[in-house]
User: Which sequence fits this backbone?
């Protein structure tokens, strides 16, 4: 026997009703998730082949299905849909083999080298996490670094192809100190590779663009300046907590209330032709130097991150109509300023989650990168940059059609890859899908407070997402159900009245607070983004649908009927472990 599902007209909307019991159409039922008018959303949990009957009544409606694989493993087989409307539509084609390099240049930021990413997720590595001592919390702060602008010099180490550490002579070019909440002074030290400094001629290693004192001042003004809640430091620590402080470990450096930003030509590639690394945080620098011990030998013994100096000084993407020369509002300076917030999240993530709570594991790269992109998103309006949303930060709407900026065009094109399998479908697609998921989470479950809760949870992996969303809703939440809501929200992103839990777009800003600090997130309309010839999300039609290729935490969008009325009959055939949702609009 099979179970038959039937949707019938009721109060102007269909209502899905189970008509007959049978053998095994469900693989672990999930709690109900009813949604109000004007949209009908029903989450099912099934496998194998079963019929689905929908009666739309007299109203013309579209019918969509979404398929989610919440499992940690993979499934074999394909998803097929047959029936009155589905069999008439052409196939959109399989996602496997789609070329992520076609279409517009969605972003030119390259991923951080894998060795850095892996180290940050398992920072204690083969050394093992030492036994902590609570007495270490009582230590006084370490001595100040005593950096002095245009005076202090040092040799720093950059990790350059063929990926080995290279000595890089550098000079401190800026020092600024201010009181932060609690009356604790914080000092920012800005260092620049000598070969990247405008006043340092070096015919043997010329750079196309060089850093000037005015550029250093611009970073100071963005990251740490006099006043309260007016810079990246205040905005990010206001929602996440401090970047460094007391701890229990002898092999980590003492807190000294200083942050270093080092500008160098990352990878020594001057102005690269394609995508490139614009910045990175490497937690090895928080460790006490250990000569001869792997990467720890090259610790700078500073709380620091690195920014690409040449691209920060790049004025070749100046805004049309601007006078010649470098401006802080040019394309690349804005990208770098947004990157400051991105890398700062990684720095805080290491202290709050790895050091204080032992809550970082190797498989959670996607969560760490998701958090950094959502931080960029939350600061886009304050910094007046486009951020990963690809829309001017001060514009709270879903933006204009044919948008090729930010992370979302590539997400639309590859929206059915694995969320958790970082880099498995390529690093840039991984950034795109983790941002899209994090953007939806933040807009539905607390905004800045969602990330505040992430810093404080001791859970890892999916459990950490379930924990912070459960805190927002006040009830137990489950990762498979979140994936189903997220998949449905993608289809509803071009309306501004989607029900709670399914919102990308309200036509204005989403507001959130952490304590007395307020934050905004702009709306997202996925149908406004273009990647090559594709406008809007990749939506399957016809007989075949996918998740690609049934990896964990993947979701597929499928249009079963467009502008139909009356009764429709479908037969769904799904691999084991997949779950399906019905969306009528």
Assistant:
């Amino acid at each position: 026997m099979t179970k038959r599902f039937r949707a019938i007209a009721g109060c102007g909307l269909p209502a899905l009703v189970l008509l007959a019991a049978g053998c095994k159409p469900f693989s672990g039922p999930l709690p109900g998730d009813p949604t109000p008018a004007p949209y009908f959303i029903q989450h099912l949990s099934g496998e194998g082949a079963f019929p689905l009957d929908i009666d739309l009544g007299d109203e013309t409606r579209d019918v969509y299905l979404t398929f989610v694989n919440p499992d940690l493993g993979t499934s074999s087989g394909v998803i097929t849909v047959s029936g009155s409307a589905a069999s008439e539509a052409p196939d959109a084609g399989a996602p496997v083999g789609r070329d992520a390099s076609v279409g517009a240049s969605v972003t030119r930021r390259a991923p951080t080298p894998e060795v850095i990413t892996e180290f940050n997720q398992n920072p204690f590595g083969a050394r093992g996490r030492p036994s902590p001592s609570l007495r270490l919390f009582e230590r006084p702060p370490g001595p100040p670094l005593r950096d002095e602008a245009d005076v202090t010099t040092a040799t720093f180490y950059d990790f350059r192809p063929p990926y080995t550490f290279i000595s890089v002579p550098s000079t401190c070019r800026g020092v600024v100190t201010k009181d932060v909440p609690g009356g604790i002074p914080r000092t920012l030290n800005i260092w620049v590779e000598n070969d990247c400094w405008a006043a340092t001629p070096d015919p043997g290693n010329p750079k196309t663009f060089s850093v000037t004192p005015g550029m250093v001042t611009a970073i100071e003004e963005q990251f740490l300046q006099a006043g309260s809640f007016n810079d990246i430091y205040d905005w990010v620590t206001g929602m996440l907590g401090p970047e460094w402080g007391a701890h229990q470990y002898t092999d980590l450096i003492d807190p000294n209330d200083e942050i270093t930003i080092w500008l160098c030509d990352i990878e020594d590639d001057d102005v690269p032709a394609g995508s490139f690394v614009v910045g990175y945080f490497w937690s090895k620098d928080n460790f006490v130097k250990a000569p001869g011990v792997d990467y720890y030998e090259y610790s700078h013994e500073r709380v620091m991150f690195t920014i690409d100096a040449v691209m920060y000084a790049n004025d070749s993407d100046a805004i049309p109509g601007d006078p010649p020369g470098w401006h802080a509002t040019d394309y690349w300076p804005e990208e770098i300023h947004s990157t400051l917030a991105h890398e700062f999240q990684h720095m805080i993530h290491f202290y709050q989650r790895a050091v204080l709570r032992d809550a970082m594991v190797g498989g959670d790269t996607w969560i760490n990168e998701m958090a950094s992109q959502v931080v960029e998103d939350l600061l886009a309006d304050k910094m007046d940059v486009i951020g990963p949303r690809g829309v001017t930060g001060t514009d709270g709407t879903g933006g204009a059609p044919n948008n090729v900026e930010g992370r979302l065009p590539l997400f639309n094109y590859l929206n059915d890859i694995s969320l958790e399998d970082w880099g498995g479908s390529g690093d840039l697609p991984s950034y795109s899908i983790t941002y899209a998921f994090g953007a939806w989470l933040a807009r539905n479950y607390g905004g800045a407070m969602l990330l505040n809760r992430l810093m404080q949870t001791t859970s890892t992996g999916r459990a950490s997402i379930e924990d912070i969303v459960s805190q927002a809703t006040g009830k137990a939440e489950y990762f498979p159900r979140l994936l189903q809501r997220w998949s449905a929200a993608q289809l509803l992103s071009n309306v501004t009245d989607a029900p709670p839990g399914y919102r990308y777009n309200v036509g204005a800003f989403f507001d959130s607070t952490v304590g007395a600090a307020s934050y905004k997130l702009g709306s997202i309309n996925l149908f406004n983004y273009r990647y090559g010839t594709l406008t809007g999300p990749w939506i399957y039609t016809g007989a075949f649908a996918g998740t690609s290729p049934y990896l964990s935490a993947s979701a597929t969008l499928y249009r079963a009927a467009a502008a139909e009325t009356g009764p429709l009959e479908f037969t769904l055939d799904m691999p084991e472990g997949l779950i399906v949702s019905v969306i009528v609009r």
Observations:
- Residues 123-359 form one domain.
- Residues 331-355 form the longest helix (25 residues).
- DSSP finds eleven helices and 20 strands in the chain.
- Residues 495 and 505 are 7 Å apart (CA to CA).
